[in-house]
């Protein structure tokens, strides 16, 4: 499972920055003739930098992990509805023969932070609630109602609750989601909350406190102007926000994967500075302890995760040098790149009832995502979102 560990979309730039600065000669005679033939390499005495990377990173391996995504529109309440934001679908649970998902819902466009009106919606996910819907076939969806709403004035989630993920465990249902406390400013910290229910229709009971917060005590803002790029120091990798939680039961513990953003976000080789970590708990309601190995990936605007072969597999979305890759970790922490994939749909919600052990990418057979409905002359902030269905088709069968 360790092939393609260092595959990066920006391979040439990686070489320029790191590999090309070292002059240690390696012995490439260890590679078999079969591998050389597969990669079209005639001999190991005359290797270009590209051929060396191909050998070192195992470009001939893991064909069974590769494939391509397709997206199609849905019907019912998940058909596009002008002026309505439906996005960030959770995992899809099959309960008593019917599919369920939870998602972010709000009304109207975002306006950004410069309107001067603190009550104006700033992002598509601002002033949102978490709703749920059900379907008999995964194509035609019925919106069932609100699951979790914004908290009372003064609470940690009184501005918005959004980007949910769901876990069914021990006869109960657990929603984890992102929260914002008013006012919503550029320097506002985000946290992660949890709600619990006995059945998918609720009622949902929120925990009194967030289950995860950013490392806000690290780093230092520069000046008093509401500018998230102005810092004295950045602090830890998640010093500003914790985002996009996804929860999974693993090895008799609970792994909460989350995206972190830090004060004064910079640009990296892969674009935006973006990283993911994991917090682990013995009890599903916490406390969640951040892993000492964080960050566990330096890429991915969103992640989708599933069980496979005793470990954890994931799809990393856009952003970062390892964007649009499928990765696997035998311990749920040390992820290795298994495949590069294109056009990963935003906010993948996987179908929990699929047999993820059947094939490396069986968990991606179908699921939900979201898309932007662009309006002429409008920015993405002002666009609508609606939920779509994705499928993933493996390109190759496993080599024998």
TrEMBL record:
Record bears the keyword NADP:
no
Q: Does the keyword Amino-acid biosynthesis apply?
A: no
Q: Which InterPro entries match?
A: Glyco_hydro_beta-prop_sf
List, alphabetically, the CDD domains matched.
GH117 (cd08992)
Q: Which residues form a coiled coil?
A: none
Q: Which domain of life is it from?
A: Bacteria
Alphabetized Gene3D superfamilies for the sequence:
Glycosyl hydrolase domain, family 43
Alphabetized UniProt keyword annotations: Hydrolase
Membrane-spanning parts: none
Q: What one GO molecular function would you report for this record?
A: hydrolase activity
Report the PANTHER family cross-referenced here: ARABINANASE_LEVANSUCRASE_INVERTASE (PTHR35279:SF1), PTHR35279
Name of the protein described by the UniProt record: Glycosyl hydrolase
Q: Which organism is it from?
A: Catenovulum adriaticum
């Amino acid at each position: 499972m360790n092939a393609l560990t260092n595959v990066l979309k920006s391979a040439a730039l990686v070489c320029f920055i790191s590999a090309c600065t070292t002059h240690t000669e390696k012995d490439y005679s260890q590679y078999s003739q079969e591998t050389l033939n597969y990669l079209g390499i005639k001999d190991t005495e005359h290797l270009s930098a590209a051929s060396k990377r191909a050998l070192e990173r195992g470009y001939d391996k893991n064909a069974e992990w590769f494939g391509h995504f397709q997206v199609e529109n849905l019907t019912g309440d998940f058909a596009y509805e002008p002026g309505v934001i439906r996005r960030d679908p959770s995992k899809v649970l099959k309960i008593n023969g019917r599919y369920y998902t939870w998602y972010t819902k709000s009304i109207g466009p975002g306006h950004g932070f410069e309107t001067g009106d603190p009550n104006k919606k700033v992002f598509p996910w601002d002033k949102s609630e978490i709703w749920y819907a059900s379907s008999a076939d995964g194509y035609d969806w019925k919106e069932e109602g609100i699951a979790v709403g914004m908290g009372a004035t003064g609470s940690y989630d009184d501005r918005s609750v959004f980007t949910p993920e769901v876990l069914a465990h021990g006869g109960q249902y657990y929603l984890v989601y992102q929260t914002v406390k008013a006012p919503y400013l550029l320097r506002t910290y985000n946290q992660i909350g949890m709600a619990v229910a006995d059945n998918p229709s609720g009622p949902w009971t929120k925990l009194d406190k967030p289950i995860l917060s950013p490392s806000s005590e690290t780093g230092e803002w520069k000046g008093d102007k509401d500018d998230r790029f102005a810092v004295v120091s950045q602090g830890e990798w998640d010093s500003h926000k914790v985002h996009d939680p996804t929860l999974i039961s693993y090895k008799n513990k609970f792994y909460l994967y989350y995206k972190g953003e830090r004060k004064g976000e910079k640009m990296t080789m892969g674009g935006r500075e973006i990283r993911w970590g994991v917090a682990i708990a013995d009890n599903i309601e916490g406390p969640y302890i951040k892993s000492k190995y964080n960050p566990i990936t330096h890429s991915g605007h969103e992640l989708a995760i599933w069980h496979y072969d005793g470990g954890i597999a994931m799809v990393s979305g856009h952003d970062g040098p390892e964007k649009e890759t499928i990765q696997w970790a035998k311990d749920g922490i040390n992820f290795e790149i298994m495949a590069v994939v294109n056009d990963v749909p935003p906010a993948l919600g996987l179908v929990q009832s699929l047999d993820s052990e059947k094939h490396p990418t069986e968990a991606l057979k179908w699921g939900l995502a979201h898309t932007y409905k662009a309006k002429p002359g409008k920015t993405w902030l002002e666009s609508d979102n609606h939920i779509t269905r994705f499928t993933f088709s493996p390109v190759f069968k496993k080599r024998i």
